[in-house]
Amino acid sequence: MSRLLSVICAVIICLGGPVSLDRPARAQTGALPTTDLILVLMVDTSGSVNQRRFELQRRGYADAFRSKQVLDAIRGLSTGSIAVTMVQWTGPSMQWPAVPWTLIKDEASANAFADAIENAQRRLFGGGTSISGAIDHAMLILPHAPYRGLKRVIDISGDGSNNRGRDVREARDEAVRAGVVINGLPIVALEYDLDKYYTDNVIGGPGSFIVPADSYENFAQAVARKLILEIASN
Asked: Residue 25 — left, alpha, or beta (φ > 0 → left; ψ -120 to 50 → alpha)?
């Protein structure tokens, strides 16, 4: 009987496939590893974002995670780490996971995340601008993060106001009631008052803020500043 059980266990292990070295280990109690910040980066890839603008966004995020200042901010946290994922978004039900959850705790993991950003292809090209859909999608994936965060943040970057889906304020308020902070990175290139729109309608929660980029060319500096502020606020 014991031999039969051994064979069955071996078959189950084989069917389960190889164990991912990137998957965080869990204690037998099912507890998740703790990190200071769980961060969802929601990146606008709607029709107003042409390929050049998309490339500038992608490069800006990659450069920010390679920044020594960002890494130093992470190292100064109580756990010395943050968990981040990146999602492309357009319409109410149009989102694509560009980069999976990654624990950033040192230069190697930060550079690996930056490399993954650079290698992530654009998968969405239109469908309107649904900030409410982006928030709703982020709220769906946050509970499935393979880490327990001392703080949960949704970061919305985009170059337009909400024009698809439900009222963005409803989505924001629901997220805030659930204990999630929403920060914004409005790209004030097409709508001159987009920074005010994000302040009034998009961001929410204790300590929430915006860091506007006045152009796509200045996006990288804005991303780095925003990340440092998000990390330092923990």
From this structure: beta
Contact of 117 with 86, CB cutoff 8 Å = yes
Burial 137-157 (b: 16+ CB within 10 A, else e): bbbeebeebbbebebbbbbbb
Place of tokens 């109690």: 29
Specify the residue for token string 């889906």: 165
Q: Give the tens place of pLDDT for each residue, 163-216.
A: 999 999 999 999 999 999 999 999 998 899 999 999 999 999 999 999 999 988
Q: Tokens standing for 105?
A: 């705790």
pTM for the model stands at: 0.86
- Using a 10 angstrom Cβ sphere, with 0-12 exposed, 13-18 middle and 19 or more buried, the burial of residue 117 is buried
d(CA 158, CA 57) in angstroms, rounded, equals 10
Tokens of 176: 């805030």
